[in-house]
Amino acid sequence: MKQIRHGFREDFLWGGATAANQLEGAWDQDGRGPSTDDVLTGGTATEPRYLTYCGSNGVTGKISMTDLHDLPDGASFAVLPDVWYPNHEGIDFYHHYKEDIALFAEMGFKAYRMSVAWSRIFPNGDELTPNEKGLAFYDAVFDECRKQGIEPIVTISHYEMPLGLVNKWGAWRDRRTIDCYLRYAEVLFRRYKGKVKYWITFNEINSMNVTGWLGAGVTSCDPTVMLPAAHYQLVASAKAVKLAHEIDPENKLGCMVAISQAVVYPADCNPANVHKAWERAQKCYFFTDVQARGYYPSYQLCRYEREGIKIDLTEQDKADLSRGTVDFISFSYYRSTTVSIDPNAPWVAPDSPLKETLGVKNPYLKATDWGWAIDPMGLRIALDQVYDRYQKPILIAENGLGAIDTRQPDGSVNDDYRIDYLKKHIEAMKDAVVHDGVDLMGFTMWGPIDLISASTGEMRKRYGFIYVDKLDNDTGTLKRSRKKSFYWYKKVIESNGEVL
């Protein structure tokens, strides 16, 4: 009989999470090729980010990331002169990694969830030989983590991929991208054997329900395009899991979704709203169902038939999916979603192309500066549902508060609002572990150091315990400094979550 836990496990992986494309910078140094993120301009909460391109006749243009469509004939995505791309510098982790990892260690991090920039290893994506300078950089990062007693948790593909594969054949629209991904993954598994044992195949793979660009380099928001591309990612993930286990039996592989798409409440007890909430949640759980169970669920196959979505599901794919199930489930959680069949319901963002995704306002919840519902109970619900569904260990790979921080004259940041947000979410985590028996392996807060926002391209939307002196006008010294929450999180880790 399983012993009742009274708190988090002794080897709980406390830490933080970042992504290469949002903090590394050095976008064109040491052989790195351009990625899908390098053609994304800055944006704001109200002004979308744009993708830039160049036509065959030399005419340049831009496409809104939230209103994607096919490029003009003969055009390709390209970095243009005199355009601000915030990810090109990020916060220059590439040259500050020792300083940043030392700050993580000062907080007591047990783990650091990070990603590798695919185009730093294979600049165009289709090469047969990797870029040694790129590999050496991550050797140095992992060695620094190990030196500081921090376990790396590495995401293989986190909202970026080589731009060359997009321009060559449409990225994940083409089955050939599977082989490119596996070649890249195999290099990582072999090179960093003994340095990295926790891997995540794709970041928030269910983003393919909303936009094809961030997760797959696909210029479409049409499910008939995005979901066939997602199928190739699912096959690639399964084959990578099998490969990683063959190379090193100590490797642990996880999938990762944005679970906010599954924590869905009906606006009221109208059965139609209840069913709408179920349908929305299943669009998220489909991805974990395939990666954790190894097959396509009947509800998704029925949806494809009903909506005329055709996927290239071969008998070999079925076998690969079955053999490549993950060892653990990881997810991001920032908010819950409320849905209604009433078109006149009060939408969270009525003028946004993501109106349906963000849902309707929940009168029982407060919201962040960006309109995201603050719902700690939703995190407990997510943990309970995911563990009940799969009975596999869970990693909370992202959770945090994006807010506008104000520095005092002495340089300090009194971010009590961030402390309050995280405190309540950690309390919800503990309830799921102690009262509900969830097997929770770790918590890597997003993001421990200020970095570029993926959705808006802003620095103004800050998450970190560590303040970075960089502004949205591309100025700043990049100097790092500790916020009030830095010292709070240090005590949380020291006490294994008992002192909040």
TrEMBL record:
Keywords from the named record: Glycosidase, Hydrolase
InterPro entries linked to this entry: GH, GH_1_N_CS, Glyco_hydro_1
Top-level taxon: Bacteria
Family designation: Belongs to the glycosyl hydrolase 1 family.
Entry annotated with the keyword Hydrolase: yes
Coiled coil (UniProt feature): none
Name of the protein described by the UniProt record: Family 1 glycosylhydrolase
Source species of the chain: Faecalibacterium faecis
Pfam families, sorted: Glyco_hydro_1
